[in-house]
Amino acid sequence: QQQQQQQQNENETTEQSQELAEQSNAPESIDPECLIKHPLQHTWTLWYLEVDRTKKWTDSMNEVTSFSTVEDFWSLFNHIRGPSEIKVGGDYMLFKSHIRPMWEDDANKHGGRWTISMNKRLSDKCWLDTVLCLIGETFEHSDQICGATVNVRQKIDKISIWTADYDNRAAVLDIGRTYKERLGLRENIYYQMHKDTMVKLSSSGTKSTYTV
After folding, report:
1. CATH code: domain of residue 117
2. Is the keyword Isomerase assigned to this protein (predicted)?
3. Count of CB atoms within 10 A of residue 126's CB?
4. Sign of torsion, CA 162 164 169 174?
5. Partner of 157 at 20 to 30 A CA spacing, among 9, 31, 166, 203?
6. Do 65 and 121 reside in the same domain of the chain?
7. 127 and 110 within one domain
């Protein structure tokens, strides 16, 4: 009888051990909300222009990646260098996925850009704020938004928002005012048409079409 009791205790211990092992190997319950990604209204593509005077401008453009959810955006931007960390002469460009970041693209050739110049120590924050305005559909006329660029230069950096149609005056001005307000800018910002910039080949010598 004592042997039977001992055997029974051993069996119970074995069963308990197996049960604990199964519990420890079972996947933890995961909140379904954690598995859901939050889609953006558009898919966006990030480009990087590397400084290389031996290459043509178009050959220096590198398509980094595309994203279409909030989570994928933060995963990207938390792991890349900010404008303050890339080489002088380099550019970041963020555009809707079907638009290439060049004046000649069909989506850009009738458009222009709002441009701000800033102290280099502010470029990281201003660039992130600009990107959040784009992907968060901050602008009422978001259909007019093509993308944005940041140009890293020796003394100052420039950030621009590109729009599709310079003749759509109401939309262009509304985008400019909203952008200025969101970035908390006090100084005027200026809008230049791409066709004028292409002729002058330098935005510093290009007349401004709109000012806010």
Report:
1. 3.30.760.10
2. no
3. 19
4. negative
5. 166
6. yes
7. yes
Domain count, the chain: 2
How big is the CA angle at 157 (ends 152 and 160), to the nearest 5 degrees?
95
Q: What is the pLDDT of residues 5-25, one digit of tens each?
A: 455 555 554 555 455 445 445
Bridge partners, residue 210, by sequence:
191
Single out the residue of 187, 163, 170 nearest to residue 108, CA to CA. Answer: 163
Alpha helices in 41-135 (DSSP H): 70-77, 123-135
Distance, CA of 191 to CA of 212 (rounded, Å)? 9
Dihedral of CA atoms 60, 116, 43, 163 in degrees, nearest 10, equals -100
Q: Please indicate, yes or no, whether residues 25 and 44 belong to a single structural domain of this protein.
A: no
Q: Hey, what amino acid is at 38?
A: H
Q: What is the pLDDT of residues 162-212, one digit of tens each?
A: 999 999 999 999 999 999 999 999 999 999 999 887 776 555 556 788 999
Q: Look up residue 145 and give its DSSP letter.
A: E
